[in-house]
Amino acid sequence: MLYDPVEAGNYAKEIPSLVSMCQRVAAYNADCILSLRGSLPVEFLPPILAQAQAEDLVRWEEDWPEIAELTRPVWKNVLRKRFPKEWQQLEAENKDPESWSECFTMFKEQETRRFEEAVNKLRNARADEDQRKQLRMTKVDAKLPPPKQRKYGQSWAPKTALQKTYTKASRQQQATFARTAPPAFTPKSYASLTRGARFNALEVQVR
Fold first, then answer.
1. Contact, 30 vs 7, CB < 8 A?
2. Which of 39, 72, 117, 179 is 20 to 30 A from 20 (CA-CA)?
3. d(Cα 178, Cα 170) in Å, to the nearest integer?
4. Which domain holds residue 55?
5. Residue 155: phi, psi to the nearest 5?
6. How many structural domains compose the chain?
7. Cα–Cα distance between 52 and 48 in angstroms, integer?
């Protein structure tokens, strides 16, 4: 099928240029780019900066401070998404920081500090709860009466009905086993058995 020249021309306009494809690849691999200084013309940088993360912007600005004028709108979007509460405060106070990179670093340190405080607060609450639990257990143990000890010549407390039934059943079982078990084999029984065998052998010889 042959393309119409008009349709072919419209289709050709949709093909991305080599520059835009390179910008897209660079933006996708922004974390691998250590420096933008001298790598591309300045007019080619905005699409790459727009897709960069805050850490990438900090690294590039430290290496090339002059790029800060291009990163200002990018920083605003980053702070608006990552620190919405702090960004609302900035807008309410109508502040325009001289260095958006330093502003991001300050917000990040505040976030880290709040996280550490929350973790310490939770850890202290857990430790206090464990201490209160241990104290309650100690009080309960202190209220329990000590076990009674039998004095010399004093019998134990009377057995319960269950204990009496168990003792009686054990005695009956032992008595039944003693009646049914064969007598134990002793040296005396062996000697009497041997003498009986010899006597029977002599009686057979006499006959």
1. no
2. 72
3. 12
4. 18-122
5. -80, 165
6. 1
7. 7
